[in-house]
Write a structure and sequence with these properties.
globular; disordered N terminus
């Protein structure tokens, strides 16, 4: 994929409210200019986030406008592989007029993310705003629109994974599923591309968490299949959202679901799951040849095969087969440009591979990856990954003759889990 060099200036007044309604209008241009100098916009175009009518916002102080601008320019692209029309994070901004607690959640995420990027102490305002948003959302959940409910849930997940990959994600995901069912079902996203992208992001998180938790996804397969049918490359795709090839998403879901009852699977079932990974054509963006995307999607193919090897197989030869797959993944990740968004999206395959490594060189590659992306992205799930890898390595080094894998450290759980993606 060729990244567009054309930049589009996004003014705070365009994104949030008319400038003449700001509480301290003279301070906004200076704050905006300072923000842009400190945090230049990414190369990818930032798409217009106001769809539908221009809201008549209540007056907001310049500090709040700056937080919204930071969220829009700096956080909202950070999880993406490349720019798309339906950014799931930006979709919440026009809804703030309907739900002030959504503004509280966005501000909490913006403040936390900025403190991580600037490596400063986090303000107590983060927890205060988050608690305020949670309290108000809980009281209003039966009356808010589905769009607002989905937006709040996604932002709350963002607040937590910006701090750590470990959490009780199931609470949010089960809440989202109940809201969708109460509103009439997954098909409500048919005519609304931003809602489709948000649901796709949440279904992605559900599947990634289920892989490591080995307790099965929250969303049923029919909903996931419906989400896959929505894919539209110019608007959004799983490849654009998370670096995963859309053609294989149902295969990954089936693997995550099968992991919940791995001990009772037949050999034929396991073979079928693995064969699908081998024969599925992992597409690149819009069918174009992109060396980096091809390397990334191959990381995912090998990563899922490595996952199957560890979760579904036992006995002699497993450790050797896992090591061969892991080494290939490590080299693929290492060869991707170190600050490429494509490399950033290989976090789950890298984790699975790094847990197999006994050599200092490969362990250093994995640690460098996490440290680099923790600093560059401001998302601290990478620190969680470092801590977990080191726990696995300590167990491996303590008993080299024993075949220890990440599943010996991460116990199956239906409550808490790890979000590496």
């Amino acid at each position: 994929m060729k990244t567009s060099k054309r930049r589009r200036t996004c003014k705070t007044s365009e994104l949030v409210l008319p400038q003449d309604s700001v509480e301290t209008p003279s301070s906004v241009p200076d704050a905006r200019l300072a923000l842009r100098r400190a945090y230049p916009m990414p190369e990818a175009d930032l798409v217009p986030i106001l769809y539908g009518r221009q809201p008549e916002y209540f007056q907001l102080p310049s500090s709040t406008l700056e937080q919204l601008a930071f969220f829009t320019w700096r956080f909202s692209p950070v999880t993406l592989t490349y720019d798309i029309k339906a950014n799931p994070w930006q979709a919440c901004l026009p809804q703030i007029e309907q739900a002030p607690f959504l503004l509280d959640a966005v501000r909490a995420l913006s403040i936390r993310h900025r403190s991580h990027l600037e490596e400063t102490s986090e303000s107590l305002a983060v927890l205060e705003l988050k608690d305020k948003a949670l309290y108000s959302f809980a009281r209003s959940i039966s009356t808010v629109s589905l769009e607002v409910g989905i937006s709040v849930s996604l932002i709350l997940i963002g607040i937590d994974f910006a701090e750590s990959a470990f959490g009780n994600w199931t609470v949010h995901l089960q809440g989202v599923r109940r809201m969708i069912e109460a509103a009439g079902g997954i098909q409500l996203g048919d005519s609304y591309m931003h809602l489709r992208a948000q649901i796709a992001q949440l279904v992605w998180y559900d599947t990634i968490i289920a892989l490591l938790s080995r307790r099965g996804p929250v969303f049923p397969r029919e909903d996931v299949a419906y989400v896959v049918s929505w894919k539209s490359e110019p608007q959004w795709s799983l490849l654009a959202l998370n670096g995963f090839p859309d053609a294989a998403f149902l295969d990954m879901y089936d693997i995550a679901e099968a992991a919940a009852h791995a001990s009772s699977l037949s050999d034929g079932h396991v073979t079928c799951l693995e064969m699908k990974l081998w024969i599925t054509e992992f597409e690149t963006e819009q069918g174009a040849t992109d060396v980096e995307i091809s390397a990334l999607t191959e990381c995912w193919r090998l990563g899922l095969l490595l996952y199957c090897t560890r979760v579904f197989h036992r006995g002699e030869g497993v450790k050797r087969r896992a090591l061969l797959l892991a080494e290939e993944i490590m080299w693929l990740v290492h060869e991707l440009p170190p600050y490429s968004n494509k490399q950033k999206q290989a976090v789950m395959p890298l984790f699975l591979a790094a847990c197999e490594m006994e050599s200092f060189r490969f362990r250093r590659i994995a640690t460098d990856f996490c440290e680099r992306w923790k600093k560059a992205s401001g998302i601290w799930l990478n620190q969680t990954m470092i801590d977990l890898m080191q726990t696995v390595w300590t167990a491996v080094d303590a008993d080299p003759k024993k075949d220890i894998w990440w599943g010996d450290i991460i116990n199956p759980s239906s409550h808490s889990g790890y979000l590496f993606g």
